Amino acid sequence: MTIRVLICDELPVIGDGLRTLLDAVPDIDVIGTTDNGMEAIVLVRTARPDVVVTDLHLRTISGLEMIRRLGKEENPPNIVVFTRISDADKTVSDVLHAGASCLLGKDASPQDLVTAIRAAAAGRTVLAPDIAHRLVTWFREQPDTPDCAPHPEVTELTPREREVTQMVARGMSTEEVARALTIGVATVRTHLYRVRTKLGVRDRAQLVSLAFRSGLI
To answer: N or C: which terminal CB in the chain sees fewer CB atoms within 10 Å?
Structure first.
Protein backbone atom coordinates (compact mmCIF):
# COMPACT_ATOMS: atom_id res chain seq x y z
CA MET A 1 0.00 0.00 0.00
CA THR A 2 1.34 3.44 -0.96
CA ILE A 3 1.39 6.04 1.82
CA ARG A 4 0.33 9.50 0.63
CA VAL A 5 2.34 12.19 2.41
CA LEU A 6 2.04 15.97 2.67
CA ILE A 7 5.16 17.88 3.80
CA CYS A 8 4.91 21.17 5.72
CA ASP A 9 7.97 23.28 6.59
CA GLU A 10 8.51 27.02 6.77
CA LEU A 11 11.78 26.66 4.81
CA PRO A 12 11.10 25.56 1.22
CA VAL A 13 14.63 24.21 0.91
CA ILE A 14 13.90 21.72 3.72
CA GLY A 15 10.51 20.83 2.29
CA ASP A 16 12.04 20.20 -1.14
CA GLY A 17 14.85 18.19 0.43
CA LEU A 18 12.38 15.98 2.29
CA ARG A 19 10.41 15.50 -0.92
CA THR A 20 13.54 14.37 -2.77
CA LEU A 21 14.36 11.98 0.07
CA LEU A 22 10.87 10.47 0.31
CA ASP A 23 10.32 10.28 -3.45
CA ALA A 24 13.06 7.64 -3.48
CA VAL A 25 11.06 5.41 -1.08
CA PRO A 26 8.88 2.97 -3.08
CA ASP A 27 5.89 2.88 -0.73
CA ILE A 28 5.69 6.66 -0.13
CA ASP A 29 4.04 9.15 -2.50
CA VAL A 30 4.59 12.84 -1.68
CA ILE A 31 1.43 14.61 -2.82
CA GLY A 32 2.66 18.13 -2.07
CA THR A 33 4.74 20.52 0.03
CA THR A 34 3.80 23.82 1.67
CA ASP A 35 5.16 26.36 4.14
CA ASN A 36 1.66 27.63 4.98
CA GLY A 37 -0.47 26.15 7.76
CA MET A 38 -3.80 27.26 6.30
CA GLU A 39 -2.86 25.97 2.86
CA ALA A 40 -1.94 22.65 4.45
CA ILE A 41 -5.47 22.31 5.85
CA VAL A 42 -6.92 22.94 2.39
CA LEU A 43 -4.55 20.37 0.86
CA VAL A 44 -5.57 17.80 3.47
CA ARG A 45 -9.23 18.31 2.59
CA THR A 46 -8.66 18.10 -1.18
CA ALA A 47 -5.75 15.65 -1.60
CA ARG A 48 -6.49 13.39 1.43
CA PRO A 49 -2.94 12.46 2.49
CA ASP A 50 -2.53 9.55 4.88
CA VAL A 51 0.28 11.28 6.78
CA VAL A 52 1.28 14.91 7.28
CA VAL A 53 4.95 15.55 8.09
CA THR A 54 5.19 19.00 9.63
CA ASP A 55 7.45 21.44 11.40
CA LEU A 56 5.91 23.49 14.20
CA HIS A 57 6.98 26.73 12.51
CA LEU A 58 4.73 27.58 9.55
CA ARG A 59 3.30 30.70 7.95
CA THR A 60 -0.24 31.99 8.70
CA ILE A 61 -0.81 29.57 11.60
CA SER A 62 1.61 27.47 13.63
CA GLY A 63 2.11 23.78 13.06
CA LEU A 64 0.60 23.14 16.49
CA GLU A 65 -2.59 25.04 15.64
CA MET A 66 -2.75 23.28 12.28
CA ILE A 67 -2.55 19.88 14.02
CA ARG A 68 -5.35 20.87 16.39
CA ARG A 69 -7.59 21.93 13.52
CA LEU A 70 -6.84 18.81 11.49
CA GLY A 71 -7.81 16.72 14.51
CA LYS A 72 -11.35 18.08 14.17
CA GLU A 73 -11.71 16.82 10.59
CA GLU A 74 -13.98 13.82 10.09
CA ASN A 75 -11.09 11.70 8.77
CA PRO A 76 -7.96 13.37 10.16
CA PRO A 77 -4.57 12.35 8.76
CA ASN A 78 -1.88 10.92 10.99
CA ILE A 79 0.72 13.50 11.99
CA VAL A 80 4.50 13.21 12.15
CA VAL A 81 6.03 16.29 13.79
CA PHE A 82 9.55 16.83 12.45
CA THR A 83 10.96 19.86 14.22
CA ARG A 84 13.62 21.31 16.48
CA ILE A 85 12.63 19.80 19.81
CA SER A 86 12.53 22.19 22.74
CA ASP A 87 13.77 21.21 26.18
CA ALA A 88 10.42 22.39 27.55
CA ASP A 89 8.19 19.48 28.52
CA LYS A 90 5.16 21.63 27.72
CA THR A 91 6.09 21.64 24.03
CA VAL A 92 6.12 17.84 23.98
CA SER A 93 2.83 17.70 25.92
CA ASP A 94 1.17 20.23 23.61
CA VAL A 95 2.22 18.34 20.49
CA LEU A 96 1.01 14.96 21.76
CA HIS A 97 -2.27 16.33 23.10
CA ALA A 98 -2.87 18.16 19.81
CA GLY A 99 -2.99 14.75 18.14
CA ALA A 100 0.45 14.04 16.70
CA SER A 101 1.25 10.35 16.20
CA CYS A 102 5.03 10.71 16.01
CA LEU A 103 7.54 13.29 17.19
CA LEU A 104 11.09 13.49 15.85
CA GLY A 105 13.86 16.05 16.11
CA LYS A 106 15.50 17.40 12.97
CA ASP A 107 18.63 15.50 13.94
CA ALA A 108 16.78 12.25 13.14
CA SER A 109 18.20 10.08 10.37
CA PRO A 110 16.38 9.65 7.03
CA GLN A 111 15.55 6.07 8.00
CA ASP A 112 14.09 7.28 11.32
CA LEU A 113 11.77 9.60 9.39
CA VAL A 114 10.68 6.87 6.98
CA THR A 115 10.05 4.53 9.91
CA ALA A 116 7.95 7.20 11.66
CA ILE A 117 5.86 7.81 8.53
CA ARG A 118 5.15 4.09 8.15
CA ALA A 119 4.32 3.81 11.85
CA ALA A 120 1.97 6.81 11.71
CA ALA A 121 0.19 5.39 8.66
CA ALA A 122 -0.36 2.15 10.61
CA GLY A 123 -1.71 4.02 13.64
CA ARG A 124 1.40 3.52 15.76
CA THR A 125 3.53 6.01 17.69
CA VAL A 126 7.24 6.80 17.36
CA LEU A 127 9.03 9.26 19.62
CA ALA A 128 12.55 10.65 19.56
CA PRO A 129 14.68 8.75 22.13
CA ASP A 130 15.07 11.70 24.50
CA ILE A 131 11.31 12.32 24.50
CA ALA A 132 10.59 8.64 25.14
CA HIS A 133 13.02 8.81 28.05
CA ARG A 134 11.21 11.83 29.50
CA LEU A 135 7.85 10.06 29.28
CA VAL A 136 9.19 6.90 30.90
CA THR A 137 10.68 8.99 33.72
CA TRP A 138 7.37 10.79 34.21
CA PHE A 139 5.44 7.47 34.22
CA ARG A 140 7.73 5.98 36.86
CA GLU A 141 7.18 8.99 39.10
CA GLN A 142 3.39 8.52 39.10
CA PRO A 143 1.58 6.84 42.03
CA ASP A 144 1.20 3.07 41.78
CA THR A 145 -2.58 3.22 42.23
CA PRO A 146 -4.33 4.16 38.96
CA ASP A 147 -7.05 6.74 38.86
CA CYS A 148 -10.16 4.67 38.20
CA ALA A 149 -12.62 7.50 38.65
CA PRO A 150 -15.97 6.78 36.99
CA HIS A 151 -16.55 8.13 33.50
CA PRO A 152 -20.29 7.89 32.76
CA GLU A 153 -19.74 8.59 29.07
CA VAL A 154 -18.06 5.18 28.70
CA THR A 155 -21.43 3.53 29.27
CA GLU A 156 -22.65 5.12 26.02
CA LEU A 157 -20.30 2.92 23.97
CA THR A 158 -21.74 -0.08 22.16
CA PRO A 159 -20.13 -3.48 22.87
CA ARG A 160 -18.23 -3.34 19.56
CA GLU A 161 -17.03 0.22 20.27
CA ARG A 162 -15.77 -0.89 23.69
CA GLU A 163 -13.98 -3.83 22.06
CA VAL A 164 -12.29 -1.61 19.48
CA THR A 165 -11.31 0.90 22.17
CA GLN A 166 -9.73 -1.81 24.31
CA MET A 167 -7.72 -3.16 21.37
CA VAL A 168 -6.45 0.28 20.40
CA ALA A 169 -5.57 1.07 24.02
CA ARG A 170 -3.46 -2.10 24.12
CA GLY A 171 -1.41 -0.80 21.19
CA MET A 172 -3.02 -2.50 18.20
CA SER A 173 -3.03 -0.60 14.90
CA THR A 174 -6.20 0.03 12.90
CA GLU A 175 -5.24 -2.73 10.46
CA GLU A 176 -4.57 -5.21 13.29
CA VAL A 177 -7.95 -4.48 14.88
CA ALA A 178 -9.65 -5.01 11.51
CA ARG A 179 -7.95 -8.38 11.04
CA ALA A 180 -8.71 -9.51 14.60
CA LEU A 181 -12.40 -8.64 14.31
CA THR A 182 -12.72 -9.68 10.65
CA ILE A 183 -14.07 -6.28 9.62
CA GLY A 184 -12.88 -3.60 7.21
CA VAL A 185 -10.31 -0.94 8.09
CA ALA A 186 -12.87 1.74 7.17
CA THR A 187 -15.32 0.17 9.66
CA VAL A 188 -12.70 0.33 12.42
CA ARG A 189 -12.05 3.99 11.62
CA THR A 190 -15.78 4.69 11.78
CA HIS A 191 -16.00 3.02 15.20
CA LEU A 192 -13.02 5.08 16.43
CA TYR A 193 -14.56 8.30 15.13
CA ARG A 194 -17.80 7.54 16.99
CA VAL A 195 -15.89 6.61 20.14
CA ARG A 196 -13.91 9.86 20.06
CA THR A 197 -17.12 11.81 19.57
CA LYS A 198 -18.93 10.08 22.45
CA LEU A 199 -15.98 10.33 24.84
CA GLY A 200 -15.00 13.86 23.83
CA VAL A 201 -11.38 12.99 23.06
CA ARG A 202 -9.40 14.40 20.14
CA ASP A 203 -6.83 11.73 19.43
CA ARG A 204 -5.52 8.25 20.11
CA ALA A 205 -3.35 9.39 23.05
CA GLN A 206 -6.35 10.85 24.91
CA LEU A 207 -8.42 7.77 24.06
CA VAL A 208 -5.80 5.44 25.54
CA SER A 209 -5.51 7.61 28.66
CA LEU A 210 -9.27 7.59 29.21
CA ALA A 211 -9.45 3.83 28.63
CA PHE A 212 -7.02 3.27 31.49
CA ARG A 213 -8.52 5.86 33.82
CA SER A 214 -12.07 4.60 33.31
CA GLY A 215 -11.18 0.97 33.92
CA LEU A 216 -11.81 -0.22 30.34
CA ILE A 217 -8.27 -1.62 30.51
So the answer is: N
